[in-house]
Amino acid sequence: LVVCPMTGWGLDGPDAARPVYDVAGFWARSGAAQAHLGSDGYPAVLAPGFGDMATGLAAVGAIGAALVQRARTGRGRVVTTNLLRVGLHCNAWAMSSYFAFGRTLRWGERDRTGNPLATVYKAGDGKTFWLIGFEAARHWPATVRAVDRPDWLDDPKFGSPTGRRKHERELVAELDRIFAAKPRAEWGPIFDAAGLWWSPVLDAGEAAADPQAQAAGAFIDVPASERSAAAGRATVT
Asked: Is the dihedral of CA 225, 227, 228, 233 positive or negative?
């Protein structure tokens, strides 16, 4: 047999039997919540199920590996996963920084990411989008083209990744003013033409209608349950 117990805290340890939901084991106690503090000093509130889904995927991977091993050896095994361990794994950037350098990292404030080209902005219609220029030097020329500020290429404050990091809040404020001049639907083609990497921030309704999500096979219609049929629905997505 291949057996996979899934728990909150693990099978051993002083809190193995402690009550848990994913917001506690995956988010709060893994260090991930504290690494995502807002300007008010509180951690971001995680939507229900994030930790559950990630832990489920970890279990699927472990079970799959155990099945391959069984096919080769004929032997079963016990594999385990838990919310806390998966939360620590997903918080690997912060944990690795701590183990390597003793530093405690923090995210959550959009103008303190260390890279103004890799944070979230708001267009003039209130819709938000993420710039994903994580390679700061590579993506700076495209950013300058998109916002029509060629003078920034040689700006002593903004012209280098080090300068942009040092003057991050000032540059984010400048970009905020520029992006507020147009709705997101107008910025998108400008970004694409300039070669600027970005992504819209979508709500659930927009994500459901997203042609890329549909093409990726994200949604599947299944026959309606009796309750859904009674509510007038023929299928459920």
From this structure: positive
